[in-house]
Amino acid sequence: MTEAKEAILLVGGKGTRLRPLTVHTPKPMVPAAGVPFLTHQLARARAAGVEHIVLATSYLAEVFEPYFGDGSSLGLHIEYVTEQEPLGTGGAIRNVASKLSSGPDEPVLIFNGDILTGLDIRALVTSHTVSGADVSLHLTRVEDPRAFGLVPTDGTGRVTAFLEKPQTPEEIVTDQINAGAYIFRRSVIDSIPTGRPVSVERETFPGLLASGAHLQGMVDSTYWLDLGTPAAFVRGSADLVLGRAPSPAVPGRCGDRLVLPSASVAPDAKLTGGTVVGADAVVGAGARLDGSTILAGAVVEAGAVVTDSLIGAGARIGGRTVLTGAVIGDGARVGADNELRDGIRVWCDAVLPDGSVRFSSDQ
What we know:
It contains 7 helices and 28 strands. By secondary structure, the protein is of the alpha/beta class. The longest helix is centred in the middle third of the chain and has 13 residues, at 230-242. The protein is elongated. This is NDP-sugar synthase.
């Protein structure tokens, strides 16, 4: 079976929708199920036979290499290319081409750095090879495709069009969307213009289609989640812990909870729903945590109730405080007896006194 030995990971985005999680940390480095999210993508690529990965970095680019180094700890050879000016998805792919060693007709895998997926990578490579495509796209089906670009295909899986976000029922001709993983014939990467921003979705793919190139779609409707919002990121982390989303990089057995070895959890605290307690974090007596992520060094005091929320590194949640769907930035202090709900975000290092907020929303 043909394998793709090389991959490009697009990890340059600013993660604006994820703030305050991404104020100090680029989105792919925010921990999911106990390790930086990017670790899961790297491990899955390695398991599918990839040996060499180039990270296309931009925002907070300096944090990637100190963590992953040359990739040898993951059985990979990792290299890094940093954009000085934002180049878009296509421009980022072209910008790292000089690091690739694949021949003109060999397959190169490309992943968006914010997608959690159960995609069968080897099946995508096989589909690409068998069809003889210039580019193959992972497609997934969604119930409401209005927020996505549609990718209709013919009976053989060949892509027939790229349709930007549809709004009227007449425009919704398929429920298939671009799921953010591709295989490019190496020569196609080299044909992308250099030195300017290029969108692979809006320029490269439609241009290839118009020129008569063969673009193949493979529908794989296993687990798929865009981690672009805090709520989605928290859910993705929980699904990794629960085993709903597959990853060889989860540091422990799948189950209701993942407590890193250096964390401290009171014996009567209740952790459910894929909750993660990070390194050196502390969970006090009687606290109840469901479907939530507690990052390194954070403290959840006695009797707090935390649901579907993310608590940043070094933050502190006071006793009996109730958090539901909240995001607490790194180093923030939420005093005792507060109630924060419905998507509220507390900025890094902010301080909320005891009993100061009974209820708030993101309206």
